[in-house]
Amino acid sequence: MRIATWNVNSARARLERIVAWVERSDVDVVALQETKCKDDQFPTERFEAMGYQVAHHGHSQWNGVALLSRVGIEDVELGFPGQPGWGEPLAAEARALGATCGGVRVWSLYVPNGRQLGDPHLAYKLDWLEHLRVAGAQWLADDPSAQIALVGDWNVAPRDEDVWDMAVFANSTHVSPPERAAFDAIVDAGYADVVRPHTEGQFTYWDYTQLRFPKKQGMRIDFVLASPALASRVTGAAIDREERKGKGASDHAPVIVELG
Asked: How far is 80 from 105, CA to CA, in rounded Å?
């Protein structure tokens, strides 16, 4: 089985690229983030015509997450238990969508950005990650043999080598000690980064500005964190850097995990 995650930066604007990539990549489950549309605007029919069942969670032109699966979609869940809200009044954003696909509980996650150090969004981001840790730890406590994949755009670069130049990010979010600690806490709760061992030195995101992509000035912020039972099935992983090339590309590359 092949599971992929991809922040597509607008499902409607990049539909043809998404369809073409899904067709040639031969993936069984695709988690999408930043779809930027409401549920009734998501191009469900296009993916169903390709043999995929679809679940989408979106409220507006911001955020949005989806799952495409050709191995079934069961027990769809909008948001994880305790997911914090944002705004006035407080409301959970469309940043987390879970479903069981081919026996694997897959969560498509779009972690809040955090914006700047000291910004209220950073406190929201840390709270969001902490509640995800609590939920994830409870899932494993309830069933240590559960096959769970926490996948998506984490907006955290947990190691220095995950950014092209730490000096550039010295006073930025994504690399701050609290954010890295929040990410590591989820790993410590039992979820392994199963892509890094197969993709050392590679990035998953390149900003559109200042020719970051051709200059190889990227970040690794998209991850697949797997429960112990799922991690034991991983036989390979890849980052499809080629999909970042060309006109109309997302600023993220797809990340793929192979399961035995």
From this structure: 12
Token pair for residue 66?
């989806």
Checking DSSP bridges between strand 65-69 and strand 74-78, what pairing results, if any? unpaired
Distance, CA of 84 to CA of 1 (rounded, Å): 32
DSSP 155: -
Token pair 């995990």: residue: 257
* Residue partners of 191: CB distance under 8 A and separation at least 6: 136, 148, 150, 225, 226, 227
What is the rounded distance in angstroms from the CA atom of residue 230 to the CA atom of residue 139?
13
Task: Kindly report the pTM of this predicted structure.
Answer: 0.98
Task: Name the burial class of residue 144, with classes exposed (0-12), middle (13-18) and buried (19+) by CB atoms within 10 angstroms of its CB.
Answer: exposed
The model's pLDDT over 104-134, given as tens digits with 9 standing for 90+, comes to: 999 999 999 999 999 999 999 999 999 999 9
2-259: CATH topology: Deoxyribonuclease I; Chain A (3.60.10)
pLDDT digits (tens, 9 = 90+) for 158-192: 999 999 999 999 899 999 999 999 999 999 999 99
Please give the biggest Cα pair distance in the chain: 47
| Tokens read off for 168 | 């550039």
Residue 2 CA, chain-centre distance (Å), reads: 15
- Residue 137's H or E segment, with its range, is helix 120-142
Q: Which residue has the tokens 């955290």?
A: 156
Single-letter amino acid, residue 169: F
